[in-house]
Amino acid sequence: MIRRMCTVWILSLSMGLGAVGGAAAGILPKDGEAQYELEFWESIKNSTHAEDYEAYLKAYPDGRFAPLAKARAARYAEPAPETVEQPALPIEEMDIEYEVVTNANVRKQPSSHTERVGELSRGDRVHVTGRTEDKNWYRVDLAEGTTGFVYGELLREPVAAPAPAPPPKPEPAAARPAPPPTATTVVTHQTGAVSDCDNCPEMVVLQPGSFSMGDDRGDRSEKPAHRVTIRKPFAIGKYEVTLAQWNACVEAGACKAMADTSASGLSDTSPARDLSWNDAQRYVRWLSKLTGQSYRLPTEAEWEYAARAGTSSRYWWGQKMESGKANCKECGGEWNNDVPARVDTFPANPFGIYGMNGGVWEWVEDCWHKSYAGAPSDGSAWTSRYCRENVIRGGSWRNDSTYAHSASRFRYDTAVRYILNGFRVAKSLQ
């Protein structure tokens, strides 16, 4: 009797292990959220960086791999630096109104470790009376008379209305020379790219059009497929924003440096990564001021319109992944687990745009919604006042092909940096 019980126990154990092995071999749960969690874990499970496991725990605090993620995060964490009390930072006096980019805590002192004295909501206007010498914290006056400090990345100057054009000066009757061409001349799909400065992203101009956005056969977040009409031409980055372009903003004092730029295999044409949605917004604001043009993040609809490039298949080249077409895990072509491929490594789509499949996850303007129910049909951004998560599109080099298709979408916290996340820019045209 005892021998029979042992046999049953061993058989049960072997069947259990077989089930686990089956999941590891790629049999994914049918539920979309569970599949996302498993794919997230697969993309980081061999990492030796604590921040990868911390990012998993933030997304899935009660996930199936949470105990292991906590253990690895603790194992790979760098020893905490000795706490040294910092002297009070000098305050540069200011008198200006700013706009709140996303929900923000107001702190008693310029440190996230001090008492919270208030909270601001996205879209609020606030009076700024000063900022610390390092420009990281801004002193603000609240409506109830309280004064506190807000982290600088959570604020921005309100977009000013354009100044009225001066009246034209009278000219003599002599023939006038033809005006020089502008940098934003509208071109049709695939005919070329324009750039507004030496180190500005190259832009491809896309004409208005209609397409079916989403995929009724895909993940629940990609449903329902719906018709979207882009009514105005717009420009979008030919490539993802590169490390060299990001560093130009850092050198100008408008952006913060990436945490890790020393990994082997990185170059000036590697995509900038480990960036938050707020980081991307800082870059487009700086680029707009530098060039006098209306740079921004693409809306989610504009992004998918550009990624599909006039096609309706799962990928722009067809229904299945083809080797060497995208920078993703086990997708063929140049691949490195530590860093993404250069932005021009893989072929362009029919609109002449590179790297919209794999590479880095790309931030768009929209807030995250679990499905497209109620989504706008005119290509505009789907935002809300209390947005804490924004949409990322296209998959990354560490994810497999199931994340690299044209309808693929996911979300991440607005103010949090993660090594798989980057972006490309868009530009409104007159």
Radius of gyration, whole Å:
25 Å
The chain-level mean pLDDT equals 83
- Any idea of the CATH topology of the largest domain? paralog of FGE (formylglycine-generating enzyme)
Number of domains: 3
Write down how many β-strands occur, each being a DSSP E stretch of 2 or more residues.
17
Proper CATH architecture of the largest domain: Alpha-Beta Complex
Q: Strand pairing plus helix content: what structural class?
A: alpha+beta
3D shape: globular
Name its key features.
21% helix, 17 strands, globular, alpha+beta, four-stranded antiparallel sheet, SH3 type barrels, 7 helices, paralog of FGE (formylglycine-generating enzyme), disordered N terminus, 430 residues, five-stranded antiparallel sheet, 3 domains
Care to describe what's here?
The chain has three domains: 29-77, no CATH class; 91-156, SH3 type barrels (Roll), CATH 2.30.30.40; 203-428, paralog of FGE (formylglycine-generating enzyme) (Alpha-Beta Complex), CATH 3.90.1580. Helix content is 21%, strand content 19%. The protein has seven helices and 17 strands. It has helices at residues 2-24, 32-44, 50-59, 66-76, 243-251, 277-291, 300-308; strands at 91-100, 104-107, 116-120, 125-132, 137-141, 147-151, 155-156, 203-206, 209-213, 226-230, 234-237, 295-296, 361-367, 389-393, 409-413, 421-423, 426-428. Strand 4 (125-132) and strand 5 (137-141) form a beta hairpin. Helix 2 packs antiparallel against helix 3. The chain is globular. The termini are far apart.
